[in-house]
Amino acid sequence: MSDSSLSVPELVVLPRRRFLRRSAWTQPLGLVGLALLVAIVLMAVFAPWLSAHGPIEQGAKRFLAPSSEHWFGTDQLGRDVFARVIYGARVSLPYALQLVIMASVIGTIAGAIAGYFGGWIDGVIMRAADLVMAFPDIILAMAVVAALGPGLFNAVLAVVVVSWPIYARVVRSMLLTIRDEPYVQSSRLLGISSARALWVDVRPNVVGPLIVLAALEFGHAVLILAGLSFLGLGAQPPAPEWGSMVSDGSKYFDKWWLSVFPGLAVLLVVLAANFVGDTLRDALDPRTAKAFR
Amino acid sequence: MIKFRSAWYALPNLVRFLVRRLFVGALLCLGITFVSFALTQVVPGDPVSANLGDRAASDPEIVAAFRARYGLDKPIPEQYLLYVERLFHGDLGEAQQTHRPVTTDLAQYLPATIELASAAMILALVFGISLGVIAAIKRDGWPDQVIRIVSLAGVSVPTFWLALVTLYVFFFKLGIAPGVGRLNPGGKAPPAITNMFTIDSLLTGQWATFGTAVSHIVLPALVLAIYTVGSITRFTRAAMLESLNQDYVRSARAKGLPERTVILRHAMRPALAAIVTVAGMAFGRMLSGTVLVESVFSWPGIGQYAYKSALALDLRAIMGVSLVVAVIYIVVNMAVDLIYALIDPRIRLG
Amino acid sequence: MSSQLAKPPLLSIEGLTISLPTAEGHRAEAVRGVDLAIGRGEIVGLAGESGSGKTLTALSVLGLLPGGARSGGRIFFEERDLLASGRAARAVRGSEVAMVFQDPMTALHPMLSIGRQMTEHVRFHLHLSQHAADAVAVEMLDRVRIPNPREAMTRYPHQFSGGMRQRIAIASALAAGPKLLIADEPTTALDVTVQAGILRLIEGLRRELQLSVLLITHDLGVMSALADRVYVMYAGRVVERGARSDVLALPRHPYTRGLLDALPHGSPSDHPLRALPGSPPAIGRFPVGCAFHPRCRFAEDICRADVPDLMPVAPGRVIACPIDPLMAVPA
């Protein structure tokens, strides 16, 4: 490979910018994060096999401390906290994923339009992004929830409103740098339409960084949804949602296990996502990484 | 027009920079009124029934009077203008819970939040910058690895949960932290000057109150700071690594300056300029985070106010809070731009 | 020139080796046994393409090698071994040995005033008051012909042109009164019209301040304008050394000759302009034997087998080549 680096074929095959340096998969932190995420997803999928109790099953005594029978104790209604934490992944993860997908799709489209057309369209879209970013995310989400009524899906919609701009910014800045790369210029010279050039040449270079950004934002999505549920604006009882479990538990201050375990679950998921996202970001081409700030 | 342009370019760089930033800031503020108006319009609920009791809402005369008073009988663009006009007079409507003007409520709760957020920001800057600089100097060494994990944990931990856990451990179990609130139960607030208890007690020389106020603010401020510590650490590290790689740092070393000077003066300065910008944006996120921290620590600020209003689905009050926070965010970022301009002679002198 | 070398040299590098860590986790020798001496008041040119080890050699004198680099051999500066003791290296850095870098656009700190950058190391090394250091700085700015030096002290780098900035960088380097100035490609980043001015300035400062200069450049034109003696490096080794006029008039090593042929106004004027074939080897991929043999027109079997020693070919003149190209016929 390296011996032929000066030979002619490479001049004909236009080089693509590799978006990750190879080192990403040898980083222990990233691997730990990835393993954790996989474990948590498996835990969510196989919840019924992992737990002897159901998440809303009220069989046991109330407020039992952690024991070999109830690993994480039982809550104020005699439900098994371990079961609720395990099943909680089935609530938090899909909604967070939904949020990230919606925000990234909207943000990507907005950013692509802004970067592609430029001019006043760019100005309007990016000023709108600035505007939304000036609003405090949780408080604006509270307003949306107050308008639409509490519920996890409404919370997701609310957070989408405040989180698309980051994707728009990254996509736009990638577009602007890639637009001037020689191979994009050359396909332009070859008479390929700009829309097609955008799809063929630009897409492969934008997808990678977008995945990295989504990994980083996934953790944030879990956090903010848990926060809204903690405030009673997201998931409604009796759904086993981690944030609302912490909130319920906080009413019985001396029964620490009610709040500690669901909170730890949030911490673990977000930490795992951030380990992966941060490792990927480090492995990004430094020029690309700059757009993330 | 041409005359105007040449006059504009004749202005000093710094003035042009500031005017431009002020203009953008004003535009953003206008945009914010638009968003908040739009949000209050999409509300499915009828503002009439939301603001008047059931009995009043069934009386057509009162309803008509109410509609006329708030201009609800006018077309929407006109309503928007009326809305902006009312905003300018500080009229954000009446809060459902307190039955007081939202502006009055905000004025009461805002100082506590500003006090808490400022304390947290100071903590976040001190810890974040120090950790980031250490990580950059010890790049890839064990301090860097440890700091990386710590800072990632900082941006991963759910604030509301950390608030509960620290309260449980330091107050309930160890008894070394005071309980919730700004003062001990029954404690007397210092004379109102700024309504920030730490500052007021200092100004009036009430040392005992000052001590209590400080001891009460430490825990919530630390919890609120954690996320920002994480993000400022990561950013500082990146900015310092970039700066340490610059030719001018090599020049400073070649001049035989002590390493401390090279790092703290030559490498730090450009990094600081970048950090200041990020800190401005982080402040916005921090104000948002007060909702969660204040509700756990019973801190009577606008975060707790927003929380209570949200539970009551009082949109008017929440929009008041987000308007204030957005404006603070914009003003802080304008101040940040000014600081940046003062730090960087390339902007200051053109 | 030989009279200058009769006295003990100001700087004497003996058997310097520098190895760098590679991406694969090994180490690669980038400098492989360099001997170099600079007399007092002498300008020594160090020529070579990128990767030849010339800049690393210079940085090792200041103890500023990049992280992970390891060095061996000895560097004597006025009898003190700078490689043996970090303390000695730190003591001379900036005060007795100063350095000017290639790009004046980035070498000055963009956010510190010229005055600050001119005086902070002067105060540190000479223990002067701010006032006294200011006076030194103003005098030095005047010496490098910065107009209005007192006013210039309050300004910032972005307010000066590239040539002016390089003058300021030189003034700053010389403000603490060093005996040796290391100039790494001091004119490469500048316009041709500005280059001559900087070269004249260095020449003048050498006379006025009895300065020794180590001039690092890939440009033999710059070298011919300034240097008393010339060292040519290739792949981490010195391949030719001699008085400037001798080397440039009659290069003995095929590599030196190739470099000169590539110059538009190369000395052997009857030669057609000709670029050296190929490119210099990367660190860690130096060819076995004489590292230059793959690009050499005269290469024979012995060149591929053995590393040639530096052999004297005339008074003050050594080359590392077993084939004297003066006698040889190109293959």
Number of domains of chain A: 1
Could you tell me the CATH topology label of chain A.
MetI-like fold
Total helix count of chain A?
12
**Strand content of the residues of chain B, in percent?**
under 5%
For the record, what is the CATH homologous superfamily label of the domain at 102-311 in chain B? MetI-like
Q: Specify which chain pair forms the largest interface.
A: A-B, 50 and 56 residues
Q: Remind me, CATH topology of the domain at 102-311 in chain B?
A: MetI-like fold
GO molecular function (chain B): dipeptide transmembrane transporter activity
Organism (chain B): Kaistia soli DSM 19436
Domain ABC transmembrane type-1 (chain B): 110-340
Subcellular location (chain B): Cell membrane
Structural account:
The complex is a heterotrimer of chains A (293), B (350) and C (331). Helix content of chain A is 70%, strand content 0%. Chain A is built from 12 helices and no strands. With 293 residues, chain A is mainly alpha-helical. Chain A has a single domain, classed as MetI-like (MetI-like fold). In chain A, 48% of the residues are buried. Chain B is an all-alpha fold. Chain B has a domain at 102-311: MetI-like (MetI-like fold, Orthogonal Bundle). Chain B is 78% helix and 0% strand. Chain B has helices at residues 2-10, 13-42, 47-51, 54-57, 60-69, 76-88, 102-137, 142-156, 159-173, 197-203, 207-244, 247-254, 259-297, 302-311, 315-343, 345-348. The longest helix of chain B has 39 residues, at 259-297. Chain C has helices spanning 2-6, 54-62, 86-92, 104-107, 114-126, 130-143, 149-152, 162-174, 192-209, 220-226, 244-249, 254-261, 301-305, and strands at 11-21, 27-38, 43-47, 70-77, 80-81, 97-100, 180-184, 212-217, 229-234, 237-243, 311-314, 317-319. The two termini of chain C are 36 Å apart. Chain C has a domain at 3-40 and 48-90 and 230-319: 3-Layer(aba) Sandwich (Rossmann fold), CATH 3.40.50. In chain C, helix 5 crosses helix 6 (130-143). Chains in contact: A-B, B-C. At the A-B interface, helix 5, helix 6, helix 9, helix 10 and helix 11 of A face helix 2, helix 8, helix 9, helix 11 and helix 13 of B.
